[in-house]
Amino acid sequence: MLRFSGSSYRRDGMTNITAILNLHDEGLLAGPSIHSFEAAIAHARAQQLAVESIVVIDRADATTKAVFENLEGRHKLLVSDAGDPSHARNIGVAAANGAYIAFLDGDDLWGYRWLAAAHDFCIRSPIEVIAHSEVNIIFGEDSLIWWHADSEDPEFDLDFLRVGNYWDALSFAKREIFIKYPFKKNDMATGFGIEDWHWNCVTFENGIAHRPVANTVHMKRRRSDSQNFRCRANDLVIWPTGLTLYRWKPMARHRSDLPPEN
Fold it and tell me: What's the predicted TM-score (pTM) here?
């Protein structure tokens, strides 16, 4: 089921960014996330960027559905019945018109400068890049700070990526990257999943750098009933890739300070 609202904001026929908010069962917690979502969009538009906004809801509870329906007329609204964040993200990507795409989950928060800063970072980058916040502030049932690694840094530790996730799902990148490398669905029955980590490995293996944007922050809520915790509770492991199976070696183009391959 698809429902569209007037949310497109274009200049000269081009949409610079599609901002995608994913809702599941966040209930009233989605309220601050929506405010964060709209504040970042407003700031980006004030910087003369054309921003389209999409909200995807996936198998939500009654409260979250009510919050979602209240957004009619403010954003493009899409309904998913996948029961998995990977497919819900892919639905948003398929409906997007922006040259770049940014994700926000329904219980997390963007810094208001995020969209404008990430767009500026990406268009200035001399290499293909996926942008992440410089730091994540984790709150809720955990309290910690998560600094995002730079895959272009000479001290970047590839072996850590084989056993742990360097970057979260709130990424910013060209739409064509998300089209070429869609998120793979979590499969609780077989024990494989962790879609954001898997996607990070796949894109990195294919020569795309993952880089933090200086002076940007995301605030991420930890909940015991989140998808992340459900994956942990079911002992899911990452879908295999060449990197995790140790069948892949980094190519020179991953590091801008190295010469190109012959």
Answer: 0.86
